[in-house]
Amino acid sequence: MKFAFIIDPLSKLNPSHDTSVALMEAAQALGHDVWITQAQKLTVVNNQAWANLEKVQLTPAELVEGRWVVSERWYAISDTVSLPLEDMDAVFMRTDPPVTIPYLYATYILDYINPKKTQVINTPTGLRRANEKMYALQFKEVIPETIVSQDKLTIQKFVEKQGAAVLKPLGGKAGEGILFLEAGDRNFNSLVEISTKWGYEPVMVQTYLPAAKEGDKRIILLNGDPIGAVNRIPTGSEFRGNMAVGGRVAATEITSQEQKICALLKPQLQQDGLYFVGIDVIGGYLTEVNVTSPTGIREIDQLNGTCLGKDVIAWVENPRNS
Ligand SMILES: Nc1ncnc2c1ncn2[C@@H]1O[C@H](COP(=O)(O)OP(=O)(O)O)[C@@H](O)[C@H]1O
Ligand SMILES: [Mg+2]
C-alpha cells in the first residue's frame, strides 16, 4: 500500500520522540511505500486534491538498553513528484498545531479526496469539528469544572469560586501558555488580559486538579479504543506535566475510570472520523482530546516494549479488524 504523511519538515522532527516517525517506520516495516508532504504543498486540480510528495526511506530507531538510538542520517528522500492524493491508500494529516487559517485551508483541500479510495486520518471534517481543548466539553460527566470566556469578570468569579484554576489558550499545545491562576494573584488582571488579547480571544479556565502532581496521563485511542498509555509527571517547580516542559514519563495502566471515558468518547470519535487520537486524563478527569498530531507512541513503546505504530498501520490495512 501507499501511505502519505502530511507533516512539518522532516528535518524538524525528533525521531526518538515524534509519533509521526513511529507511524512512518511502522508502515515501512509492514512493506508499504511511505511518502511525505506538507500542508502548504497541497493543491486542488480538476476537483482532486494533489500534493508535491517525496518518497522516504527511513533507518528505524532502535531501542538499546531502554533508550531510542537513532542514526545520524535517519532518512533519505527522493525527488519531488506531483500526484493526486487518491493514488495513496491512506493519508495521515499530522501537521503540528496551532490550527491556523492555512491549516484549516489544508483540511478543505483534503475534502477533495474520495474517502472510498483513500482513507484520511484524521478526517478533514473531524479536524475542523474538534478544537483540542473544547471537544472535551461535550463529555460533561467526565470533565473538571470548566468555563470558556474572554471576559475578565467572568474568569475572576470562576477562579474565586474554585480557589485555584488553570488557564489554557484554546489553540495551544505542549504546555504553551498554560497558566496557574489563583484568586488574589497580584498579576491576575494582567495574565487574563495577555491571554485573552485584551478580551479579544476566549480561553479555557478549568478548576485546578491537585491530582496533576501525580501525572497527566496520555491515552492513545485507535478508532475509539485505547491501545496504550503513558503518564507524564511534573518535575521540580513546574506544575505542567508536558514532556516538552520536562515532564518525566512513566509506565502506567489504563484504569477502569479511564476505560469508561474511552467508551464514552468512542461513538462520537467514530462519527467524527477521529480515528487516531490522544486524550489527556488527570485524576480520572478528561482534560484534552488531541486530534491534530497526538504524540506518545515512542514513549509507550519504550516503556512497554510494544510497537503501537504497527497496530495503527494494521488497522488502516484492514479497518474492520478492530
Ligand atoms: N485542570 C488542571 N489541573 C491541573 N493541572 C492541569 C489541568 N489541566 C492541565 N493541567 C496541566 O497543564 C498541562 C497542559 O494541559 P493540557 O490541557 O493538556 O494542554 P496542552 O498539553 O495542549 O498544553 C498538563 O500536562 C497538566 O500538567
Ligand atoms: Mg496536553
Automatic annotation (TrEMBL):
It catalyses: gamma-L-glutamyl-L-cysteine + glycine + ATP = glutathione + ADP + phosphate + H(+). Residues 133-317 form the ATP-grasp domain. Pathway: Sulfur metabolism; glutathione biosynthesis; glutathione from L-cysteine and L-glutamate: step 2/2. Gene3D superfamilies: 3.40.50.20, ATP-grasp fold, A domain (3.30.1490.20), ATP-grasp fold, B domain (3.30.470.20). One of its GO terms (molecular function) is glutathione synthase activity. Its EC number is 6.3.2.3. It comes from the Bacteria. The keyword Transcription does not apply. PANTHER family: GLUTATHIONE SYNTHETASE, RIBOSOMAL PROTEIN S6 MODIFICATION PROTEIN. Keywords: ATP-binding, Glutathione biosynthesis, Ligase, Magnesium, Manganese, Metal-binding, Nucleotide-binding. This is Glutathione synthetase. GO terms for cellular component: cytoplasm. InterPro entries: ATP-grasp, ATP_grasp_subdomain_1, Glut_synth_pro, GSHS_ATP-bd, GSHS_N, PreATP-grasp_dom_sf. Belongs to the prokaryotic GSH synthase family. Its cofactor is Mg(2+); Mn(2+). The keyword Nucleotide-binding applies.
